[in-house]
Amino acid sequence: MFYIYCPYCKEHREEEEFHPRGQAHLLRPEDPENTSDEEWGDYLFFRDNPRGIHHEMWVHSVGCRKFFNITRNTVTYEILETYPMGEQPTITAETERVRKEQGVQAADGGWQTVGARPENKALNEETSS
Amino acid sequence: MSDVKEFQSRPTDTSRAESPLEWSLHEQKSLPHASNPGVILSEKPFMGQLILRGGAIVMDEAVREVMDMALPAKPLAVVSDDSGERSIQWLSPDEWLVIVPGGEEFELEQKLRQSLGQAHFSIVNVSGGQTLMSLKGSRAREVLMKSISYDVHPHAFPVGKGVSTTFAKATIIVRRTQEDGWELILRRSFADYCYRWLLDASREYGVSVTR
Ligand SMILES: [Zn+2]
Prior knowledge:
The complex is a heterodimer of chains A (about 130) and B (about 210). Chain A is an alpha+beta fold and about 130 residues long. Chain A is about 25% helix and about 25% strand. In chain A, strand 5 and strand 6 form a beta hairpin. Chain B has about 210 residues and is an alpha+beta fold. Chain B has one domain (about 20-210): Probable tRNA modification gtpase trme, domain 1 (Gyrase A, domain 2). Chain B has five helices and eleven strands, in the order αββαβββαββαβββαβ. Chain B has helices at about 20-25, 55-65, 105-115, 140-145, 190-200; strands spanning about 40-45, 50-55, 80, 85-90, 95-100, 120-125, 130-135, 160-165, 170-180, 180-185, 205-210. In chain B, the strands form two sheets. Chain B has a six-stranded mixed β-sheet, covered by helices on one side. In chain B, helix 2 crosses helix 3 and helix 4 (about 140-145) packs across helix 5. The chains are: A alpha+beta (about 130), B alpha+beta (about 210). Chains A and B meet through strand 2 of A and strand 8 of B. Zinc ion (ZN) binds near residues 8 and 9 of chain A.
């Protein structure tokens, strides 16, 4: 079970109250009439499936019924941050790569923003190495 | 003034109104009545309930003017007036639930519409769609602990808080408006199910249902 911080209710809630709604930050092509079939097909049907950091849209469907974004590690299932619609993530695959190159443990750096901090920190460190 | 057509949804003639729990309570030939109940359930039927949506600032001004109350300033907060009969609950950043004694809601809706004028807002009368259930008694909290995953410990759930959450797979609103009890807001179509669940969950503590 995830324990997810809703940026609107401003507290952690059980996963049961939420629904995932796919990849976040998708932009509809501004000029559909002059968009190629391939671009339109990409927009409609094709989604990223990264190994590692992923930005997803979720909805707090039983609570405040607002949509928001989650930055999640698809390998470890860590939720690194949650943020309201219209905002940009502070943690991305790029920031994680830089952190790793500088020799900073991702398990420490990842928690600088709001998100679910697992009770078992040892478990977390194991997966991040 | 908005152009929305308003109508009085509460029958003013002799038509009989039935609360969402009418059938459930009627089906039980005699209501549970434990000698020393740990849990006391009672429906507060026919309350006036409005859903307000819009910007917090304009809505707050209108509510102050019409109801002499302020919108709850924090997420998950419920505020009540001095009599405890009228309340406003935060449901989301642009949505609030107003509960008033039955019969007041239509006039309140009209006054709010007048006060809000051409602002961007919506008011929906949901009085017929849901009902209030009061849950009291020394073991009331234990019944909630069995039924919802939300933390109902007094540290996490003080008086003046209300949340919309899952209750035995259904969706309900749980709120604490007073020290000694809880209020559950049940959707009409889930009311019978939730009521039966509550009876079952309360049985081991001794339960009384009052009308
Ligand atoms: Zn929420």
